[in-house]
Amino acid sequence: MSTTITVEGMTCGHCEQTVEEALHGVSGVTDATADREAEQARVNGDADVTALLQAVEDTGYTAHT
Question: What is the per-residue pLDDT for 65?
Answer without folding.
Answer: 94
